[in-house]
Amino acid sequence: MVRLKQKFHASIERTFPEQRLFLRSDKDTRFIRLSPGTQFIGIAGSALLLGWTIVSSAILVMHSLGAGDLREQAMRDQAVYESRLNEISIERNARAQEASAAQERFAVALAEVSAMQSRLLQSENRRRELETGVDVIAGTLRETMKERDNARTRADSLVAELAESVADQPEMTHMADLENTLDFMTVALGDLAKERDDMTGFVDEAETLLEDVAFDQRLEAERNERIFTQIEEAVTTSLEPLDEMFTSVGLPTDSIIEQVRRSYSGQGGPLTPFTFTSGNGDTTEDPLTKRANEVLEQLDRVNLFRIVAEKIPFSFPVKGSYRSTSGFGPRWGRKHEGHDWAGSRGTAIHATADGIVVHAGRQGGYGNLIKIKHEFGFETRYAHLSKIRVSVGQRVSRGELIGDMGNTGRSTGTHLHYEVRLGGEAINPMKYIKAARDVF
Q: Does the predicted model carry a pTM greater than 0.70?
């Protein structure tokens, strides 16, 4: 070890021989002796300082470049996300326009069904009147022909009596009476013949009128076929997206529809099924009537779907510019029971379904909170609001303004925390919002 130290010192002395630094003043001269060890320490320290400076500068440069790349990547991701949001917004607007068009087609179909029902009733009444008229004319014709036959029989008997009277009583007076009676019968027979001809003309006119009515009914049937086809297509277009919307979220559609049907059990108006009653009181249902009632049932199902859709939180709560910041599920080791959308303070918040406000005030980490109770066991929550615009017990409709976005409670910035609960259990709100994207 001593030998190594001696070799090390000798090497330093050869590399860094002793140096003297002279300092001269006006009165004397001084010098500072720089030993090899001192020179080695100074040069090594300077080298270390220079190396540390170079390494630090390189680290700073690399960090700056890396931060720039991260910012550019974040900007690119933000641009892609905004582009995707714009595409989703455009797609949502297109679906909303399609839904509005389907609603218009539904209204037109409803008006066509009502008009068709009126025309069918008028046609049926007209047919009944014509049948009654034909029956009356036929009865009158039968009575007239019977009277004509009776008159002919009576005339023949009078002629026979006249012949017998001529043979037995040749008096002129009785002969004149018989001639008068014969003249009267001749005139009566002529009148009966004229009435018979008139009745024949009436029958011909009635038959022509019946042929015209039959032709009109054929035209009406063809027109009804076209109208039914258009209505059925419109109903299918309106019903399919609604059915898919409920199926995609796994709701028991049939039981919910039946529950709403019981709640809305009033009858009357254009959607009431119609039937025709025969003269003996029997209710008949021809194929056209059956088809019309099937369309009415489908229209009624569309109406029930739309009533249910108003009561389930399918709508979107934020109206304005926003950015999705946190979804449903695990977050920071805990379950995030809703979805967050960030926006500017005061952004309008709307109810996502019809319901009754059961809470409107502050609640712990939620800050300013609104709870709305909906039918079928649903509840929605709107948290961190800057302003509450509803009160407890108030009934609200889907799309109604209920509050403003804010930053109250346990919040890191202005945003809306939105929850959907079913039977008290939190569920993913986006499941319902996405399901209704093609409908609302």
A: no
Q: What is the DSSP letter of 375?
A: G
Q: Check residue 343 and give its pLDDT.
A: 93
**Phi-psi category of residue 377: left, alpha or beta, with phi > 0 → left and psi -120 to 50 → alpha:** left
Give the total number of structural domains in the chain. 3
Task: Give 407: exposed, middle or buried? Use CB within 10 Å, 0-12, 13-18, 19+.
Answer: middle
Cα(436)–Cα(312) distance, rounded to whole angstroms? Answer: 11
If we measure between CA atoms, which residue out of 340, 321, 332 comes closest to residue 417?
Answer: 340
Residue 91 lies in a domain: no
How do residues 13-53 score in pLDDT, each as one tens digit? 777 677 766 666 666 777 677 777 777 787 888 888 888 88
Which has the higher per-residue pLDDT, 290 or 385? 385
> Which H helix or E strand runs over 402?
strand 401-405
In this structure, the number of other CB atoms found within 10 A of the CB of residue 224 comes to: 19
* Residue pLDDT, tens place only, 207-234: 777 777 777 777 777 777 777 777 777 7
3-state secondary structure of 275: coil
Distance CA 114, CA 56 (A): 85
162 burial (CB, 10 Å; 0-12 / 13-18 / 19+) is middle
Residue 440: both structure tokens together: 């609302």
**Residues 304 and 199 grouped into a single domain:** yes
**Helix, strand or coil for residue 387?**
strand
Q: Which two tokens stand for residue 140?
A: 């009158």
| 85, part of any domain | no
